[in-house]
Amino acid sequence: MCSGSFAKCLGISLIPLAIICVLCNILLFFPSGESVDRDNITDEVWYFGGLLGSGVLMIFPALVFLGLKNNDCCGCCGNESCGRRFAMLSSMLFAGVGVLGAGYSVIVSSVALSHGPKCLTSGNITDWVYPFSNGDYLADKDLWALCLLPAGVVSWHLSLFSVLLVMGIIQAVLCAVQVLNGLLGALCGCCCGGSDGSN
């Protein structure tokens, strides 16, 4: 199978994952679907792990991977003189950017899951705090009752950051696979079975 075709498959896979991550990050700005004061939004949401790390930074490698097949593995940016090997090497650099972006999203999501959401814990509207300090709420669902408002914020927080965590891991794996695919394409040519790309 041509390395360029395989890269295109990876690019096609990365785009919907990036869109899902962007949507999850946007939804996290509205805990339980409610509009709250910006000071009452969980800090990790503002780190933009889904918007930047697994979103915007993932679009660049995805487009590069798609372009490898469109250029029939024979150039970079439509310039055939660049050569197949240089195009595959450049795809490795963009795959590295993708790994970094996905890794950032995974770290932010992991920290957010450990800290838990920011929520109102009493009748006093100034008591928006982080009632879960060390991830203990993950194993004890009864603790979720500490969060009074927004209703259902713990499951909202847990669900969306878990999706970001899983999507980030998948993206990192796909980009790491492209690093290997790009190395193989750079060493052997895009189609290792023949230089004409027939295999």
| Count of all domains | 1
- Helical segment tally? 4
* Computed structural class: mainly alpha
| Overall body shape | elongated
Question: What would the average pLDDT be, to the nearest integer?
Answer: 83
Number of strands: 2
Q: Please provide the ordered H/E string of secondary-structure elements.
A: HHHEEH
Outline the biggest β-sheet.
Answer: 2 strands, antiparallel
| End-to-end Cα distance | 6 Å
Organism: Pleuronectes platessa (European plaice)
Subcellular location: Membrane
Keywords: Membrane, Transmembrane, Transmembrane helix
Membrane topology: Multi-pass membrane protein
Relevant terms:
single chain, 199 residues, mainly alpha, two-stranded antiparallel ribbon, 2% strand, elongated, disordered C terminus
Task: Give the structure's gist in a few sentences.
This is Transmembrane 4 L6 family member 4. By secondary structure, the protein is mostly helical. It has one domain.
3D structure, described in words:
It is a multi-pass membrane protein. This protein is mainly α and about 200 residues long. The chain has one domain. Helices cover about 60% and strands about 0% of the residues. The protein has four helices and two strands; from the N terminus they run H-H-H-E-E-H. It has helices spanning about 5-30, 50-70, 85-115, 155-190; strands at about 120, 130. The chain has a two-stranded antiparallel ribbon with strand order 1-2. Helix 1 (about 5-30) runs antiparallel to helix 4 (about 155-190) and helix 2 (about 50-70) packs parallel to helix 4. It is elongated, with a radius of gyration of 21 Å. Residues about 70-75 and about 190-199 have low confidence and may be disordered.
